[in-house]
Design a protein that fits this description.
about 120 residues; single chain
Length: about 120
Amino acid sequence: AQLDRKLTAKDFLSVEWILREEGSGTREVFDNAILQDLPDANIRLTLGHNEAILKIVAGGLGMSCISRLAIEPLQEKGQLVILDTPYWQLTRPLYMLVHRQKYQGPGLKAFLKFCDNQV
């Protein structure tokens, strides 16, 4: 469906949410951002796998807050859309741990440099 206006947080008041389980990073993003504006959000189902969530949402049984990378294959096929929600901070930091005494070859060094440049 398309609207002739921008979405607001109030547009999500009656949404049925299909979410990752509590304790997952994706669920933490949802809880910290969306639940602040929608404390009575209707969480219909929680699952432990992105694929299951995507199939349910693509089938029209709710909405989700899930990684953009997980969504892209279904978005390219036109089965899902990503909604513009600039009023919610829906990102999370990622951390990389590297053992300081392990050899860091040129591939790993290049990858670490690439990651640093993405910030």
